[in-house]
């Protein structure tokens, strides 16, 4: 085992430098060590930094949490009212929608607790406690309980988290779980105690013509006029503890909620965001950036573009399909366009050149320090990239095609067909009954309310030949031989046979099989062959990539440790990993290109200017047009009488920050972050302080829509608002 090297990050990466720009998704628990208060105060922070995060008292941290599976939400009333983005609540809105109750089109407004809609599967998570466990991990490495390479692994970290929970005073408390994660590429480790509430109900959502105004066209773009918000509420048992849904549950009396400011904002005003950024890769080498571009972004763009072309056409032709696929399409489109923008921005913003300059500087630093590990590490990472690029590319095409693209036979429960075959061969009645029960679950899982067999058939007819075109023959699942030999290479004929005749194709076929299940029928079934082949090939490709990865985690650990030393005393933030972070900056306009200036805010006037009744992305609701015509904005208008919609800040954010609160220098809510700008989509890899902007919906627009369009004065009345 290599000698363990421990980085004292509190010294190397945590010293304040006045040259620090706005870059940084900062760990709350390191803000004082990194002396961020001085910089934040200089930019306009008025509150005490200890009121932002203090492990010994209630702070702003306690009003922010994880909404659903990948967004941020903030508490905006004493009664557990959550504000997040419309696109974050989109799954829930779609889940409750039907042709008869089309909340996607019409919006949803609960005028009382009784009208709020339970949303199965939706959760809200608070960070209850953060503990530094770096020394515990290093001690385990020194004692041989885990290797340094294994310390990054989920198996070890899950056990560590479970063991620490057992020793904690929070053991056995309702809703409490733990998560241990590496930071600074394994140079630091933190343990998070999470409290999860599982009864979260839908309260308010504007129509998609407001919440998604601009659609694909405006996504990642400025100027923006999107009312990207929705509201939910946390319910708990009578004692305030997390509990599964019950009619007896009551709105949670929270320990902290955000005050809302209607004071407005000016260019240069301080702005800070607290949330859960998903993933950044700021410490990649030049070769790894190329890997991201070619091995991940290009395959993702290629496959999603073909699938979305089909979905777009089918959704336009049917309201039923539009509702079924609305959330799926939005999720797919978001990172399709992000990947396009990222590759363009990497070139436009000369990210590769910047990385090359950093590596040259690092080589000189390593030589000066006479550090052999530092001198060799970039070259070893380059070797890794050369080794894994073809495998990474193949696996991306595979996952985009078979795990994200084609839905039929996607579920792993279909493997129960083989379990059933085994049970039938052994004539074990109980095992047969168990396998059949699993198969029934699988059928229901596939043919759910948001799945259309004919739409998916059309997707398969395009994606199966596309995958074969893009990867070498050895990356093809075995069912491609059936296409070649039995169907003479005719993909359409193969897909039709699969979607018409297989056990899982329709209820008639499935019930006929269940009434008389035989091993012969399973062995002849195309869906059984398809599912087994896809599963087998995925494991094969994933195993090859895992083997090719080698000791890349340890190489990254060495490289990041060296970079922190090289840049000292300037503080560096660890890459985002969906843990709670703070970013600070200012309200600010920008100039994307010669002769073009974007001001820092937009107004409702821009919505009317963009209106296009023939384009579903730019339809404006009649009620909103009426409010605009009469200037019925109430107390939410600007001093000049206009209605603000969105604004820009220099905050450093990424996916996962969607829904995050944007707060002023007093910690008061002024907006909700929902996007970044097109010109800086390389920001997850390399932050550009001149171009990087966060796009937020103005809280005044949110409240205006809630009160004037939604008629929910009841919600306004429960908030704490300062004029």
From TrEMBL:
Q: What is its EC number?
A: 3.4.14.-
Name of one Pfam family that matches: Peptidase_S46
- Please state the span of the N-terminal signal peptide per the UniProt entry: 1-21
Residues in a coiled coil are 531-558
Question: What keywords does the record list, in alphabetical order?
Answer: Aminopeptidase, Coiled coil, Hydrolase, Protease, Serine protease, Signal
Provide a Gene Ontology MF annotation, just one. Answer: serine-type aminopeptidase activity
The family database entries (InterPro entries) matched by this protein are listed as:
Pep_S46, Peptidase_S1_PA, Peptidase_S1_PA_chymotrypsin
For whether the record's keyword set contains Coiled coil, the answer is: yes
Q: Does the keyword Hydrolase apply?
A: yes
Q: Function, please?
A: Catalyzes the removal of dipeptides from the N-terminus of oligopeptides.
Family as reported in the entry's similarity comment:
Belongs to the peptidase S46 family.
Q: Which PANTHER family match?
A: PERIPLASMIC PEPTIDASE SUBFAMILY S1B
* Protein name (Swiss-Prot/TrEMBL): Dipeptidyl-peptidase
Species annotation: Phocaeicola plebeius
């Amino acid at each position: 085992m290599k000698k363990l090297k421990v980085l004292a990050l509190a010294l190397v990466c945590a010293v304040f430098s006045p040259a620090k720009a706005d870059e940084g998704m900062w760990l709350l628990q390191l803000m004082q060590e990194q002396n961020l208060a001085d910089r934040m105060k200089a930019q306009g922070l008025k509150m005490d930094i200890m009121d932002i995060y203090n492990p010994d008292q209630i702070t702003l941290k306690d009003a922010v949490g994880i909404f659903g599976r990948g967004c941020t939400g903030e508490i905006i009333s004493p009664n557990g009212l959550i504000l997040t983005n419309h696109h974050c609540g989109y799954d829930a809105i779609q889940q409750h929608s039907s042709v008869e109750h089309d909340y996607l089109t019409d919006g949803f407004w609960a005028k009382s607790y009784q009208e709020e809609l339970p949303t199965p599967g939706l959760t809200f998570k608070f960070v209850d406690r953060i503990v530094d466990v770096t020394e515990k991990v290093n001690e385990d490495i020194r004692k041989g309980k885990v290797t340094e390479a294994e310390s990054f692994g989920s198996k070890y970290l899950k056990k560590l988290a479970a063991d620490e929970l057992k020793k904690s005073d929070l053991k056995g408390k309702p809703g409490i779980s733990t998560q241990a994660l590496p930071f600074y590429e394994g140079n630091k480790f933190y343990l998070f105690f999470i409290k999860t509430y599982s009864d979260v109900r839908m309260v308010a959502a504007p129509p998609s013509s407001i919440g998604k105004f601009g659609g694909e066209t405006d996504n990642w773009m400025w100027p923006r006029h999107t009312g990207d918000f929705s509201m939910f509420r946390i319910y708990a048992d009578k004692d305030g503890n997390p509990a599964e849904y019950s009619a007896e549950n009551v709105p949670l009396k929270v320990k902290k909620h955000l005050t809302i400011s209607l004071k407005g904002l000016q260019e240069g005003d301080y702005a800070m965001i607290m949330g859960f950024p998903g993933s950044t890769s700021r410490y990649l080498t030049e070769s790894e950036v190329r890997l991201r571009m070619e091995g991940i972004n290009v395959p993702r763009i290629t496959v999603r573009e073909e699938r979305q072309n089909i979905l777009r056409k089918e959704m336009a032709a049917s309201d039923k399909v539009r509702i079924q696929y609305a959330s799926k399409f939005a999720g797919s489109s978001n990172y399709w366009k992000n990947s396009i923008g990222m590759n363009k921005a990497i070139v436009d913003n000369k990210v590769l050149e910047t990385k090359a300059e950093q590596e040259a500087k690092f080589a000189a630093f390593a030589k000066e320090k006479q550090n052999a590990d530092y001198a060799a590490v970039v070259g070893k990472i380059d070797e890794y990239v050369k080794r894994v690029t073809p495998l990474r590319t193949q696996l991306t095409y595979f996952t985009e095609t078979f795990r994200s693209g084609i839905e039929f036979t996607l579920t792993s429960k279909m493997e129960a067909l083989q379990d059933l075959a085994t049970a039938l061969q052994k004539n074990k009645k109980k095992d047969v009954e168990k396998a059949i029960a699993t198969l029934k679950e699988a059928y229901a899982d596939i043919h759910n309310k948001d799945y259309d067999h004919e739409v998916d058939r059309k997707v398969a007819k395009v994606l199966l030949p596309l995958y074969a075109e893009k990867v070498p023959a050895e990356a093809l699942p075995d069912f491609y031989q059936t296409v070649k030999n039995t169907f003479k290479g005719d993909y359409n004929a193969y897909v039709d046979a699969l979607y018409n005749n297989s056990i899982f194709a329709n209820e008639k076929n499935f019930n006929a099989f269940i009434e008389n299940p035989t091993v012969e029928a399973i062995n002849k079934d195309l869906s059984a062959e398809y599912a087994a082949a896809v599963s087998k090939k995925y494991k094969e490709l994933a195993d090859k990539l895992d083997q090719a990865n080698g000791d890349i985690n340890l190489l990254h650990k060495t490289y990041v440790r060296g970079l922190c030393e090289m840049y000292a005393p300037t503080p560096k933030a660890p890459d985002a990993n969906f843990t709670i972070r703070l970013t600070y900056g200012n309200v600010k306009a920008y100039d994307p290109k010669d002769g073009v200036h974007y001001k820092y805010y937009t107004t409702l006037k821009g919505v009317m200017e963009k209106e296009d009744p023939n384009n579903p992305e730019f339809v404006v609701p009649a009620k909103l047009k009426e409010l605009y015509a009469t200037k019925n904005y109430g107390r939410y208008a600007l001093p000049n009488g206009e209605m603000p919609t969105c604004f820009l800040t220099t905050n450093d954010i990424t996916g996962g920050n969607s829904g995050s609160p944007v707060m002023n220098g007093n910690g008061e809510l002024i907006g909700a972050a929902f996007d970044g700008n097109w010109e800086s989509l390389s920001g997850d890899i390399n932050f550009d302080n001149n171009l990087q902007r966060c796009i937020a919906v103005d809280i005044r627009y949110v409240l205006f829509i809630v009160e004037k369009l939604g008629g929910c004065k009841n919600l306004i009345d429960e908030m704490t608002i300062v004029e």
